[in-house]
Design goal:
4-stranded antiparallel sheet; 28 strands; 6 helices; single chain; mainly beta
């Protein structure tokens, strides 16, 4: 059950964004101000509203400690505020004074990323308040940004519909079209889908856009295999462009706000709709969860912010599907290993693993040699056309080892492709 417990109506124009710290709620607006409220009683702080920007404030976010608030604006600046006093710590000017649409702190508070209307993305050093690195996307404005919880990379979304993945050195790892009519928001679940497997980490990410869709993705990061962004499914429910999406602090709830004036609450493991909230009278522009409690804020073009409380019993682990893997891999049964393989798109390997009685403990002990020698999984990289021609000629043996292949499933080696592309960019004039 979700209950509306408070409504804030202090802004004089559209509410563009909401953000929580462990003790405060920040809201920003087309009226050029940022307002701060205490979570104890939702009273506005004495030094609120914060005024500095000369145009609309598009986004605001707290540092992980909650001591700094960042706000960005059409005026081309990102302002850093002391949340205990309301004083300005620094004013960061975007290159070319381009309107800044989104800002995010890295999980370790070392950097702040700001994305602008001209496609530039800037990483600011939070020790010196100086520009650290700068990049840009090919087309469109940057309107969305989210850091992976482990801080190894972040994702930006553009008005052209592209999701772009960057590492902590501002190198582009991956880019692909995600929403045909433009992306509006993206967010990572703070909790990994499962534990580490040979250095792999799996995180769920959501994106939404002008195409009225919410898409769920799984990101994989490994020291050995690099980065992969894999589309999982599309959630239905909204009848108009979706402007915002956000995961709860434990990753068990996903909410979205739309031009259709509604807020939809999803169970992301199944995609089921749990609730539809229709109290706003105009477009819902922003959704945000508190970092450690089931408290939700939704902002709208009706100039209000609604605060919602979730009952714990409506959000219990009992709703979790039985096939969802346990947190500790060494305790997985053979069936849970099979479910994990299916979740990674490796259904063709299920029977091989079952025949060899691979449970969680065995999975952790697998090596490249045992995959090749015992399970007869090839593990080599080939040109796609060449290996497909090999298989087309009804050859079920490995071109490298001449061993019989029990499975003909082909897995793209995106890491090798990225390495080749980087080498070409470096050596070709």
């Amino acid at each position: 059950m979700v209950t509306l417990i408070h409504t804030l109506a202090d802004h004089g124009d559209d509410v563009n964004y909401c953000a929580f710290s462990s003790s405060l709620l920040a809201t920003c607006s087309l009226d050029k101000t940022i307002r701060l409220y205490s979570l104890n009683d939702f009273n506005e702080l004495p030094y609120s509203p914060l005024k500095c920007h000369t145009y609309a404030v598009h986004c605001c976010c707290f540092s992980p400690s909650g001591h700094i608030l960042a706000s960005c604006s059409t005026d081309g600046t990102t302002v850093l505020w002391n949340t205990q006093t309301g004083h300005i710590l620094a004013v960061l000017n975007q290159p070319n004074d381009s309107p800044v649409r989104v800002c995010r702190f890295s999980p370790d508070s070392m950097y702040l990323v700001s994305g602008a209307a001209d496609g530039t993305v800037v990483s600011w050093n939070m020790q010196t308040y100086k520009l650290f690195r700068c990049g840009s996307v090919k087309d469109g404005s940057l309107v969305a940004c989210a850091f992976c919880p482990n801080g190894s990379h972040f994702v930006t979304g553009s008005s052209c519909g592209d999701l772009t993945v960057w590492d902590d050195k501002m190198r582009c790892l991956h880019s692909e079209k995600a929403h045909d009519l433009g992306i509006t928001c993206c967010d990572f679940s703070s909790q990994p889908i499962s534990g580490d497997v040979h250095g792999l980490q799996f995180f769920r990410m959501a994106s939404c856009g002008q195409d009225c869709q919410i898409k769920l993705w799984v990101t994989t990061l490994s020291d050995l295999s690099g980065f992969e962004l894999k589309y999982k499914c599309t959630l239905s429910g909204h009848s108009a462009p979706v402007l915002s999406c956000a995961f709860s602090y434990d990753g068990q709830i996903l909410v979205s706000g739309s031009v259709d004036k509604s807020v939809i609450v999803y169970e992301p493991n199944t995609g089921n709709i749990l609730h539809t909230l229709t109290q706003h009278t105009r477009y819902v522009t922003t959704c945000a969860f508190a970092p450690n409690i089931l408290l939700l804020a939704t902002g709208s073009m009706d100039k209000t912010v609604n605060i919602w409380q979730f009952e714990l019993k409506a959000h219990c682990q009992a709703d979790k599907p039985e096939h969802e893997p346990k947190q500790f891999i060494e305790t997985w049964s053979e069936e849970e290993v099979s479910s994990w393989l299916c979740a990674q798109g490796l259904e063709d390997l299920v029977n091989i693993f079952k025949m060899n009685n691979i449970d969680g403990k065995e999975l952790l002990n697998l090596t490249k040699e045992s995959l090749t020698d015992d399970l007869k999984i090839d593990g080599y990289s080939y040109e796609k056309e060449a290996i497909e021609n090999w298989i087309t000629k009804k050859k079920r043996t490995s071109p490298m080892t001449n061993l019989v292949l029990p499975s003909l499933v082909l897995t793209p080696n995106r890491t090798l492709k990225m390495a080749i592309n980087r080498w070409l960019e470096t050596h070709q004039k």
